[in-house]
Amino acid sequence: MERKIQLNSGQQQVVQTLSGPLLVLAGAGTGKTRVVTFRVAKLIETGISPERILAVTFTNKAAREMKERVGKKLGNRYETRPVISTFHSYCVRILRRRIGLLGFPNLFSIYNTGDQEAAARQVLRDIKASKGNIKPSDFLRRISRWKSAGVRAEDALNHLEDDASDYVMAIAYRRYQELLKTLGAIDFDDILLLTEEIFHRFPETLRAESNLFDHLLVDEYQDTNLCQYRIIKALALPHRNICVVGDDDQSIYSWRG
Predict the structure, then answer these.
(1) I want to staple 189 with a disulfide (CB 3.0 to 4.6 A). Which of 61, 147, 234, 239 is the partner?
(2) For residues 241 and 20, is the Cβ–Cβ distance under 8 A?
(3) 143 within 8 A of 173, measured Cβ to Cβ
């Protein structure tokens, strides 16, 4: 016989607070994912259709674990299931539906590291930067930081650091994005950046995407970067039913301030 899991008073408060924005901060091993699972089940028990709930986390392993826990909790009582995904996987779904708005083919490719490095070498060679000290790997790390902060290629010149090579990288960034678009491809960081761009440039599309859900939940919220924050904020804005759970002591971005 399966042991019935009990929630403490703090966890019960999170599970019972079902409307409006909710921030939950808790340390490692305190049952954060368990609380998300119970909260999803509680929402469904109060009449929210499972498919109207979106829960996102940051790794495929965490998403699989959450799906398994929610599946066990719900059993066979419902025909549909909540949408549980990583940030990137869910944004890929959006791009498959909407990326044509930005002039990309719907059947776009997602470049791996090798593909990115080949494109970077071509761009650096085209602008004569390959003869300098800029390596493709350094260039890709730099534009990844720009993209994680939501800085697009056309704005990179306004976000230069002290390094003299930053100006050249900003110029190369624009050429790199143009090359990928010509090839019908995006890179891993573009998944978030282009989703945010669609939301920003096409308000009617944002409304259509946000209207798919009544409740949003984010696990491991401390790992959210600026681009992810703006995406989830935009999706939650119409109803403001968002619950984020995390441990601020474990933030992977804390060292960046």
Answers:
(1) 147
(2) yes
(3) yes
